[in-house]
Design brief:
Helix 5 runs parallel beside helix 9. Strands 1, 2, 3, 4, 5, 6, 7, 8, 9 and 10 form a ten-stranded mixed beta sheet that branches. The longest helix has 15 residues. The chain has two domains: 207 residues, Spore Coat Polysaccharide Biosynthesis Protein SpsA, Chain A (Alpha-Beta Complex); 93 residues, no CATH class. The protein is of the alpha/beta class. It is built from 15 helices and ten strands. The radius of gyration is 21 Å and the shape is globular.
């Protein structure tokens, strides 16, 4: 394995139902200079059995199992530490790549870029419905020079909420600070943007990755992640202007009542969330009152209003619309629960 050039690093936990399809998809495209490294955070399901079933057939397959789950940030960092390639692709454990993707990534890496960003399409959890044709609105491959650091941050950082898009020269990763980003859930963003680009970056515009949307382990913590963790990380970077940061995300999205309405419609904002996250932070008594009232609104009604708004007036956010239709407050889900309870009685 000394001639490995690209390490596809997958940190996984409790993905026995999905990781086999991902590995089969990737390993079918692997060449002798590619290794697939799976770091398992102590999965209690059949993840180990599924992953080990690939090892005999694919000599480039490596599996490392930890006794305990250390969190996604630590696990991806350890995976890069263990990797043997000059480049590391921080791939996800439940998504797929299109034919020829590994070759395209290898070609970009061999061109000498420090970072390669791969575009994706977004589909429903069973891949049956295409939600977004391309997540990153870039239609031609792009190169970013060292002088383009701020532009690269403003344009690409929002997309890098998806870790599977990131291919990075391993030496860059190893040279940068990692521990301060443990617990952010976006260690890769911290590594990339903590300092100016040390080497050129390249974006592959074709949506070569198929993302399984709605399958993230962090779904129950969506309110905290998108209102506090993600903005806190983005606004912690000192090397970028406030204007660039605002293009990535608002500094305090939770301070906007429309955001709280949308989160209420998704079923991730409640009176408990108000008491824990909003009341201690929101300074205006009137806005606190409004935030509390939103938390108490009937979820079914807010969901219906949100779907109507995103389906007619503001159709630019298909992922939000999909979230609303997947919510426990979506009318079909409410009806199913009601009939289920009625049938049980």
């Amino acid at each position: 394995m000394s001639d490995v050039f690209l390490s596809i690093c997958i940190a996984t936990f409790r993905r026995g139902a999905f990781i086999g399809e991902t590995l089969g998809n990737l390993l079918a495209q692997a060449t002798p200079d590619v290794e697939v490294l799976v770091l398992d955070g102590g999965s209690p399901d059949n993840t180990a059995t599924v992953v080990r079933s690939f090892q005999e057939a694919y000599p480039g397959m490596r599996y490392v199992r930890q006794e305990t789950n250390m969190g996604v940030d630590r696990d991806y960092n350890r995976a890069v530490d263990l990797a043997r390639g000059e480049y590391c692709w921080l791939m996800t454990d439940d998504d797929l790549v299109k034919p020829g993707t590994v070759r395209r990534v290898l070609d970009a890496c061999r061109s000498g870029y420090g970072f390669v960003i791969v575009n994706c399409e977004v589909r429903s959890i069973d891949f049956s419905e295409q939600i977004e044709e391309r997540r990153l609105a870039v239609y031609e491959d792009r190169e970013y020079g060292l002088e383009d650091t701020e532009f690269f941050f403003a344009e690409i950082a929002p997309y890098l909420q998806f870790i599977g898009a990131v291919v990075i020269r391993r030496s860059i990763w190893l040279a940068r600070e990692k521990e301060k980003y443990y617990g952010t859930l976006f260690i890769h963003v911290g590594v990339i943007f903590q300092a100016p680009l040390p080497e050129k970056a390249y974006v592959i515009s074709d949506p070569l990755i198929t993302v399984r949307f709605g399958n993230a382990m962090w779904t129950p913590k969506m309110f905290e992640i998108w209102n506090f963790k993600w903005p806190g990380l983005v606004w912690s970077f000192s090397g970028y202007s406030d204007a660039a940061k605002r293009k990535v995300c608002a500094k305090k999205p939770w301070n906007r009542l429309l955001v709280l309405m949308l989160d209420r419609a998704k079923g991730v904002y409640s009176i408990e969330g108000y008491r824990k996250w909003i009341a201690p932070r929101m300074k205006s008594p009137m806005r606190r009152f409004g935030a509390a009232m939103i938390a108490l609104l009937p979820g079914f009604l807010v969901n219906l209003m949100g779907i109507a708004w995103l389906s007619t007036i503001n159709r630019k956010y298909p992922l939000h619309l999909h979230d609303l239709r997947s919510s426990r407050y979506y009318y079909r889900n409410c009806i199913a629960r009601w009939f289920g309870k009625a049938g049980g009685t």
